[in-house]
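From the shared-data thread, chain only:
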Amino acid sequence: MTESGTILMGDEEAIKASYAEMNAIPVDWDLSDKPVEPLRKTQTTLGGETTISGPGTFMGKAMRTITLAPSNLEGWWLDRADLPNSLPIRVGIANVWTTGQIVSNIVLRSGNPHNYVRMVEHLISLRMGMGIDNMVIKFDSGDPPLFEQGSLDVVEAIKSCGVENSEKPVNYFTVKKPITVGGTYGDFVTLAPPLNPDNPQLTIDAAINFNTALGQQRIIFPVCKELTEMASVARTNTSNAKVWYCRTIGKLFADVRNLGYNKKNVSIAGKKRYINEPRLVHEGKALEAVWHRSVLDLLAAIALIPNGQFVGHIKSYKAGHRLDCELMKQLYLNEMLVPLDEYLKGVE
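Structure, as C-alpha cells:
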C-alpha cells in the first residue's frame, strides 16, 4: 500500500507527485514528541455562558455578537437567535451548504435557506482542540465576528466558562487504512490510523507552498489545548494582489464589498515580503499561515464529524476548504469511519 492508501477522489499519479513534493519540504517545527493527555473518557460541555462581540466578517461596519453556552445536546450547534422559528444548525458534514466562491469559507445551513452561518471554520475548529464536546453558539446574524487576534478571543471565552463533565462516554472514530482525496492544484489530504496504537491521538503533518513571501512552510504536531491556544492567534492569509482585487474589481461583488478584513485581522503577503507583521515566528521563520491552515481551517473540517471525535494522523498539502469538505463527504459516502475501539482490537 502506498503512503496515500486508498484514493477516494483525484488522480493517482498527480497525488504521488504531490506526496514527493511535500516530503521534500523540510519540517520547520516538529512537535511530534510533545507529551499530551490521554484521550478523555467522558463528554464535556461549558460550565457557564459568555458573550463576545466584534466587527462583522462580511459586514465590517456592523458589530456582531456571539454567545457561547452549555448544551444538553450532543455535538456543537449554531443557533440563529435572530431567526426564532428556525432550529439550531448541527455542526456536521450533512449541513455544509458551500465553501464559498470568491471568499473561501465554510457555510453551514439547515432547513430554511435563511438559516445559515458563514465563515464558521474559525469557531468550529476549536471543537477539536479545546476539550468541549457539547456546546451551542448563539448568533445575532449569519455573519460572525472577525477578531484581530484570530480565534484567541473565542479560546479565552471558552476557558472563562469552565468545563462541566457528564457521564456520557466520548465516541472516538478512526479509519482502518489511509484514505486520500486529491484536488486539481497539486493538493491532497490523507486520513490515516493513529501513529501509536498504544497511545492513540490526533496528529497532523501539514505543509503549504505559496508563490509569495509565505513560501513553503511545514509543521508536525499533536492536537491539544496548549497548541490550539498558541495557534489560535493565526490570521487568515491573503496575497497583496488579492487585497488590490478586493479594493477594485471586487467591489462589484456583494461578498467582497463590505468585507471586514484589514491589516490587523488578516496576514498579507507580497511576492517577496510581508505587508504587515507576521505572527508565530519560530527560529526566525514566520509560520502563521501553516498554523492557521492546520488548526483553524483543516480541523474545522474534521469537526464536521457530528457524533464523535476523530483520532488518527492527517497529512495535508496545499489544500483548502473545498477539498477538506470533499474529504469528509467521501468519508461518509464510502463508509470509511470505524469506532476506535474496533480498530485497536484489530491491531492487538
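The two ends are 20 Å apart (CA to CA).
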